Amino acid sequence: MKIYNNKRAVEFSFNWLFAVILGVVILVLAVYAVTKMISTGGTETGTIASKEIGILLNPLEINFESGKISSISIVTETRIYNKCDNTGTFGNQIIQTSQKTFGKFSEPSFEVKFPNKYIFSGNYEEGKKFSVFSKPFDFPFKTTDLIYLISVDKKYCFVKMPGNIKQELKNLNSSNLLTENCFNSADAIKVCFDSDTGCNITVSYNQGYVEKNHTRVYFETDALMYGAIFSEKDVYECQAKRLMMRTKELANIYNKKAASLEQKNCNSNLDLGIFGILLGNYKTSRDLSGLFIKSNEIKNANEAATCRMW
Fold it and tell me: For 52-82, how does the pLDDT look when each residue is reduced to its tens digit (9 = 90+)?
């Protein structure tokens, strides 16, 4: 009888242990399944958010004007990733998002591509609210609008900037783009013009370059200057390349228009064919200076011509 009781005890202990192990396995699988669902759901939600942000960043859709600041508000803490590629005729603006769930950011969403947008920002901007403004890029004709995206949690302090830049920034009336008495602000990114004393970013306005994180990129026009200030180097160089690709296509269109008008004895005297070749040879922002000289020559010739192309 004693042996029988021991056998029952062993059987009971084994059944209990098996039930515990099985319960743990089921619990682990359930947690894993829920985690995967949250992760997948976060990715899908992020992809939808990326598309919506891309649409919102279309100046025609949100009706923001050059020189006016707008904002995008998102309920959830979000990272907006800014990427681009130079494939195809115009390249692509690539947006991904990642949203915070249970105190942790999800994996970045699937890439959403826009061939007609040019966004300048950090590799990603993080927050619930983002400031957005735009400027037209003329080179020498209107190429497109450049969009600048900044988390409102970032503050930029502009120091000793030229009068036209100061007035433009003041007109934006943005709480995170500061122009007065901000140099001693501990949380502000210092943007200094022609000075590098205690500055995070140095802008050489006359020589046409921006230096930060020990790297230098080059710009022509104020529109690209802002792009260089707010962007990381890889984002800036990629977007500048895409802009030259778009400008090349537009130059070719205008060149065909000029050839058509010449048949009607209306000569524009523009070197748009040569300009297109030069644009096709563009490699990095170092090439912008020579292109800008040619752009100005074409601009002046167009303004003096009887038959203007634009």
Answer: 655 556 654 444 556 688 888 999 999 999 9
Beta-carbon contacts of 310 under 8 Å, excluding residues fewer than 6 positions away, are: 141, 142, 254, 302
d(CA 40, CA 142): 42
pTM above threshold 0.90: no
Long-range contact pairs involving 41-45 (C-beta distance under 8 Å, separation at least 24): 42/98, 42/99, 42/101, 42/106, 42/107, 42/109, 43/106, 43/107, 43/108, 43/109, 43/110, 44/109, 45/99, 45/106, 45/109
Contacts of 44 (CB under 8 A, 6+ apart): 109
> What is the residue type of 28?
V
- Burial class of residue 257, CB neighbours in 10 A (0-12, 13-18, 19+): middle
Q: For the chain, what are the domain ranges?
A: 239-304
Look at residue 73 and give its three-state secondary structure: strand
Helical (H) or strand (E) element with 103: none
| pLDDT higher at 284 or 103 | 284
